[in-house]
Amino acid sequence: MRWLVGWSSIAASFGTVGAVGHDDEGRTVHPVGSQLLWGDPDPLWAVGDWRPDEIRVITVATPEGAPTTRLAVLGCCGATDEQLRVGLLAARGGALRHLTAWPGSYTAVVQIGRRITVAGDLAGARPVFHTPWANGTAYATAALPLADLIEAQLDIGHLAALLACPETPEALGDGTPYAGVRRIPPGHALILREGSREITGYEAVASLAVAAPQTDPVSAVEGVRDALVEAVRARLTAPRHAPETLPPDPGPVPGMGPAERRAARGAPVPGIGSDLSGGSASATLALLAAGLPGLPGTVLGHGTGAGERLLAVTFNDLSTPGREDELERARVIAANPRLHHVVVAAGEEALPYASLENGPLTDEPAPSLVVAERHRRRLTAGSADHFVGHGARQVLDAHPARLADLLMDRRRRHLLRPVAALARAEGPSAHSLFVPVAVYRAARRLARTSYRTGLESAAALLPGANRYAPDLDTPAEASLAALTWSRPGPAARWLTGEALAEVAVRLQGAAIRPTSVQRPGEARARAALARHAADQRILEQAAEVRSQRLHAPFLDNQVVRAARSLPESLRVQPGARAAILRRVLAGAGIHDLPPGWGTPSQATSNAAGGLGLRTALPELIALFDAPLLADAGLIEARVVRKALRAASEGEPLPLDGLAALASTELWLRRLVTRRGTCWTGTAAPRQRAVAGGVVPARRTLQP
């Protein structure tokens, strides 16, 4: 786990050389295992196993007595030193957007005198957290270190909102699972001036009164292509890293080659690699990385390196049938001579919910905790720098609520194809005849519903979510349920009435607060992207392989920004994501794609989730025998145990909701049993986050 941390305080100087930070009484405190980037009065540290090329500090020469002007960029950034200097000078004049326009995934921190600016990303994959501390403000890219710093208790209300409405920013607010630790929204920056804080957005907000000018579809797709190519190029041109030294190879093992022995020891392969699942997102990244032209030092300007082939990893779940077509597409794509194909086969040991007792403590809870072991097995066979296609669906696809945006712009004819596709997905039945009318009415109702009315209606319906929650079995039903300003999450049906009522109060409070309201479709799409990016961040921590870096270019700022320029009429068309990525590859000179490329594969994931739940049922029942969630007043243990048994017997229940409950309970247990703290020094916290290691009663946790 890697993070950065710093703070800004009222004091002009602590009277030290800046080797460590100090509180308001002059006592020392600094993070464990840290690297100081700059010192007092507003210190900044990088903590964790950062690579040398992942930390860049640029200082602009200023006249004697002028304020210090410097920029720290942490992560993979494709900008040159000169571009960083230009961006630093632009940020000094207030143009913060320049800090987010470079290729790659990174966090930028600017210091101009006593003013500190920390820019978050657009998706939310690199968030920024802050909390009051020592007559000032501490900030970090992880919430747990700040919680340790202030000895925070759990915010049970936030956990309730995370389970009840995970894709509703109004319910989550700017909170975290730790009381007193706040998060800045995606697309915003944190500005600190001698301890005082300000949160400002750096992206333009579209008007509700006037429709934004529609970008030409061809130029919009070209923008996505250029952004993806630059994102991949930023990773390929970065210095290569070999895995750190591991225990010696035990020698030949029957049935195991060198690659298998390396994976068994927990080491990735040196070089560049990529997922190759047979889907459109991972295939696009693998083909771009393998054949991207114009890279220096390559044979004829092609390939990932001189004589180097890209390692393409395909995961074959032997326990779940129905993946034959997907595996065949991956095999056809891997026939490319610049790809070295590796198939990782696994059975029941890699199903969801496997090996729940193993795994690190992550920064926050997320549903991906129950599939961490499944992903770790695939990633261990990958490379030191590994591409993943996560985020493509949320970045490129159209959220169903965007149909309401089309009606607001009087573009009714663009609803014909998506509505007809939903009707075909229902199959030949009498019900399918009414799907177009039902979807159109729902979209028109959402287009005519104001932001405040939508949230108030959701707040009124939320307390009854545990008594009645629709089963979203078909695409049409899921789309109809998504055509609203806010809807309960899949785990809401198992929360207590008290927990749901508290979340409803949050929604009612958000409804009356002034806000820069976006169009419903755009707002719902951004919320879904933020939720997925947060889950992806936790997955990287939970499935982390030492010496490996996961790269998700679809979550990069420049790719997200380019995708937002795609016309809504193009997004809502059936198969839009596959068509866009096909044109991206064609623009890069890649035309030969296997039949069925871009076919959705969500059904096999759901099947794996159900099988994993049945296999791990005894462990899950034991997990909820005396759950901490019940101690906090969020669930009733017997109700969840009954649901687990029913789901294992084939009753149609939302498996995503059960995964969210299991992940949150698992995270709580890991949190309260952890040892140590993130800080050391004479003023280091005496207790870790969740003081005393016990989840107190819910009524004692109100901030």
Give structural notes.
Helix content is 37%, strand content 15%. It is built from 25 helices and 20 strands. The strands form four sheets. A six-stranded antiparallel beta sheet has the order 4-5-1-11-10-12, with helices on one face. A hairpin with a 2-residue loop joins strand 8 (104-112) and strand 9. Mean pLDDT is 86; it is low at 13-19, 294-304 and 697-703.
Q: Descriptors for this entry?
A:
alpha+beta; 6-stranded antiparallel beta sheet; 25 helices
Secondary structure elements and their pairing?
Blueprint: E1 3-9, E2 21-22, E3 28-31, E4 34-38, E5 44-47, E6 55-60, E7 69-77, H1 81-92, E8 104-112, E9 115-119, E10 129-133, E11 136-140, H2 143-150, H3 156-164, H4 169-172, E12 182-183, E13 188-193, E14 196-201, H5 217-236, H6 258-264, E15 269-275, H7 280-291, E16 310-317, H8 324-333, E17 339-346, H9 372-380, E18 383-387, H10 392-396, H11 402-408, H12 416-425, H13 435-447, H14 451-461, H15 475-482, H16 497-511, H17 520-542, E19 549-551, H18 557-564, H19 568-571, H20 576-587, H21 602-615, H22 617-623, H23 628-631, H24 637-648, H25 655-672, E20 679-680
